[in-house]
Write a structure and sequence with these properties.
Low-confidence stretches: none
CATH architecture of the largest domain: Orthogonal Bundle
CATH class of the largest domain: Mainly Alpha
Largest sheet: none
Shape: globular
Strand content: under 5%
CATH superfamily of the largest domain: Farnesyl Diphosphate Synthase
Number of domains: 2
Length: 294
C-alpha cells in the first residue's frame, strides 16, 4: 500500500473504534485483512448516513450528498475529486475513500451496493414517511441490506444463495433500529413506520406536537412490528449455511446481538419511549461466549 492508502485505512479504523456501534465493535472477530475492509465499509456507511442528519437546510444536505456521490465515483476511477466540490464537513471524510475503493476492488464488491447506500440516505431527504410496508422495505434494502450484501464477499462468500437471507437480515436489523430510535427520529421529523400500520392500530405518528405517550394502541403497534421483524430474523439465519470461519462467527454474533435488542423491546415496548434501549454488557458477553463455543 502507498502512504495515502495506509493513512486512509487508519482513518477508517479510528472511526470504527470511536463508534458507539454494536456492528463496529464486532470486527475483532475477523482476520486483519477482513477487519480493515469492514472498518472501511463501516466508515463509508456511517459518513453517508451522517449527511442526512444535522440542522443544515435540506438543499445543503442534498448538495453534500451529491458531492459525496461524485467523490465516490472519482475514487473508483482512481482520482481525487477536487476539494472545491466538497462541503467543509466532507473534506476530512474524503480521507476514507481510498480505503473504500481499495476494499471494493480487493474483495470484488459490486460498486452498486455502495451507490445504493447513498441513494438510501437521499431518501431521508425526499421522504419523511412511508405509506406502506413495501415502501419501507424498499428503503431498508438501500440503507441496510446493501451493506449486508457488501459484507458477503469480504467474508469470503460468493454463493448467490446467500443473497436473499442477507437481504432479509438487513431488513431485520433496520426494523430493529427503527423501533429503538422512534423518539429520536420523531425529533428529526421522521416516522419510518408505515402509515398503513398507524391506521391499522388507530394511533398517530410521533411528532414534536404529539407528545411521546405510550398509549395501548402504540404498544400494540410496536409488538406488531417486532413480530414482523422476527420473521425476517428467522429467514435470515439461512445465510450462515453459506458462510465459514470468521465470517460465519461474525454473522452469528451480529445476528444474535441485534435480535436480543429486538427481544428486549418486544418484552417491554413502553421502554422505547423512556430511553434508548441497549443490550447489556453481561448479555453481550454471554452472546460472544456462546458464539465462540458453538
Amino acid at each position: 500500500m502507498n502512504s495515502e492508502l495506509v493513512e486512509s485505512y487508519r482513518h477508517c479504523q479510528r472511526q470504527a473504534r470511536e463508534a458507539a456501534s454494536n456492528f463496529a465493535r464486532m470486527f475483532w472477530l475477523l482476520p486483519a485483512d477482513q477487519r480493515r475492509a469492514m472498518q472501511a465499509l463501516y466508515a463509508f456507511a456511517r459518513q453517508t448516513d451522517d449527511l442526512a442528519d444535522g440542522p443544515e437546510p435540506q438543499e445543503r444536505k442534498r448538495a453534500a450528498i451529491q458531492a459525496w456521490r461524485q467523490a465516490l465515483e472519482a475514487s473508483f476511477a482512481g482520482r481525487a475529486e477536487p476539494s472545491v466540490l466538497l462541503a467543509d464537513n466532507l473534506q476530512s471524510a474524503q480521507m476514507i475513500l481510498p480505503a473504500v475503493a481499495d476494499t471494493a476492488a480487493r474483495f470484488q464488491i459490486p460498486r452498486d451496493y455502495l451507490r445504493q447506500v447513498i441513494v438510501g440516505v437521499e431518501m431521508d431527504l425526499d421522504q419523511a414517511e412511508f405509506a406502506t410496508f413495501d415502501e419501507l422495505r424498499h428503503y431498508c434494502l438501500h440503507v441496510a441490506s446493501a451493506v449486508g450484501l457488501a459484507c458477503l464477499p469480504i467474508w469470503g462468500c460468493r454463493d448467490e444463495r446467500a443473497q436473499e437471507p442477507a437481504i432479509d437480515c438487513g431488513i431485520a436489523f433496520q426494523l430493529t433500529n427503527i423501533l429503538r430510535d422512534l423518539v429520536e427520529d420523531a425529533g428529526r421529523g421522521r416516522n419510518y413506520l408505515p402509515r398503513e400500520d398507524f391506521e391499522r392500530f388507530g394511533c398517530q405518528p410521533l411528532s414534536v406536537s404529539n407528545p411521546l405517550t405510550p398509549s395501548e394502541e402504540w404498544l400494540e403497534l410496536i409488538q406488531f412490528e417486532c413480530a414482523r421483524a422476527v420473521e425476517y430474523y428467522d429467514r435470515s439465519l439461512e445465510a450462515q449455511r453459506f458462510l465459514a470461519g470468521s465470517g460465519r462467527r461474525m454473522f452469528r454474533l451480529m445476528h444474535a446481538t441485534y435480535r436480543a435488542l429486538l427481544e428486549k423491546i418486544a418484552r417491554a415496548p413502553h421502554s422505547v419511549f423512556e430511553r434508548r434501549q441497549r443490550v447489556s454488557r453481561p448479555h453481550k458477553a454471554w452472546i460472544v461466549l456462546k458464539t465462540m463455543l458453538t
